[in-house]
């Protein structure tokens, strides 16, 4: 996936945030968190990225993931 971040963004700060989220997701997965919950975490993380206006306008909506059977 290619993402265009706002050029004014604090790149080191964003990379540290993404690494912290990634490590946290590893811990959650090892603790038994299911894939649906982990995907929600990832979706929320990417929602918070400071994208360029063009990148925001080109984003396709993601399907809603449900853990209901």
How would you sum up this structure in a few lines?
By secondary structure, the protein is an all-alpha fold. The chain has helices at residues 11-30, 35-47, 53-58.
Features:
69 residues; mainly alpha; flat
How many strands? 0
Element-by-element helix/strand order: HHH
Mean pLDDT: 84
Number of helices: 3
Instruction: Give the low-confidence spans.
Output: none
Overall outline? flat
Helix content: 55-70%
Biggest beta sheet summary: none
Query: How far apart, in Å, are the first and last alpha carbons?
Result: 29 Å
Q: What is the structural class?
A: mainly alpha
Beta strand %: under 5%
Query: How big is the Rg?
Result: 14 Å
Describe the structure.
With 69 residues, this protein is mainly α. Helices cover 57% and strands 0% of the residues. The protein is built from three helices and no strands. The mean pLDDT is 84.
Give the SSE map.
Layout: H1 11-30, H2 35-47, H3 53-58
